[in-house]
Amino acid sequence: MFPIRDSIPRIHTPWGVYLIIALNAAVFLFELSLTHEQLFEFVHLYGVVPARYLHAEGTVWEQHPGTILSLFSYMFLHGGWMHFIVNMWTLWIFADNIEDVMGTVRFLIFYLLCGLAALGLHMVFNAQSMMPVLGASGAIAGVMGAYFLLYPHSKVLTLIPIIFIPYFVDLPAVIYLGLWFLIQLSSGISSVGAGESGGIAWWAHAGGFLGGILLLPLFRQSKRCYFCYNSRGRRIGVARWSDH
C-alpha cells in the first residue's frame, strides 16, 4: 500500500514539516556527494549501530563510541532515492495535520521523541546488530500513530499494486493505518531470531507508531484548531481540543 493523499485540509502553515523535509533533503544531497567509502563511514558514525551502544567492545567501531548526536542524526539519513522519497512523501501527507494541533515547536519535539521511541524498541530486539539504523520512517510512524487517533474517519487515497495493475481506493485512515501497523508488528515478530530482517527496521516502525499514540496527549494544544469529522467521514466543522 502506498498513500497518495488524505482528505484532511490543513489550517496552519506547517513550518515544522517544511524544516524537517529541508533538513532531510540537505543531508541526502550531501550523502550523494560522498564516495562509497566515505558514505560507509558516514552512515556508521551518524546512523545508530545498536551494538556500538550496547556491546561496544565487540564492534569494529569501538574507537568511535556512541554519541547523543547519532541518536538524532540517524533520523535524517537515507539509504537511497526510494527510501528518501517514500519517507518524505508520507511525512508530507500526514504531518501537516498533526502540526495543526501542536504548533511548530511542539511538533518538532514530538517528532524527535517519536524517533527516539522507534529506535528504543528496535534496539530491544536488535541489541547485537552491527547494521546501522537510518531513516526518518520511525519518527514518521509516530506522526502516523497520532493521525490514527486524531482523524480515524478521514480518507486516504491508496495505491495498491495488483501484479502490474495500479489500483486506487479510498480507505478510512483507521483501516489504512491499522493495517500498516499490523504489518509492521507481524513482520517484526516473524523477524525475531531471523537476523537483520532484510534491512527493514520493523520494530522501529512499530515503536514509533506506539510512541506517537502515547505522546499525542502531551503535545496537543487546547487552543489550536483542527478539522473534525463525524463517523461517516464527513467534515462537521473546526474544533479545538478544549471543546472536547
From TrEMBL:
It is found in: Membrane. It is a multi-pass membrane protein. Residues 67-219 form the Peptidase S54 rhomboid domain. Gene3D superfamilies: Rhomboid-like. InterPro entries: Peptidase_S54_rhomboid_dom, Rhomboid-like_sf, Rhomboid_protease_S54. The chain crosses the membrane at residues 12-30, 71-95, 107-125, 131-150, 157-180, 200-219. It comes from the Bacteria. GO terms for biological process: proteolysis. Keywords: Hydrolase, Membrane, Protease, Transmembrane, Transmembrane helix. One of its GO terms (cellular component) is membrane. GO terms for molecular function: serine-type endopeptidase activity. PANTHER family: RHOMBOID PROTEASE, RHOMBOID-LIKE PROTEIN 10, CHLOROPLASTIC. This is Rhomboid family intramembrane serine protease. It comes from Oceanidesulfovibrio indonesiensis.
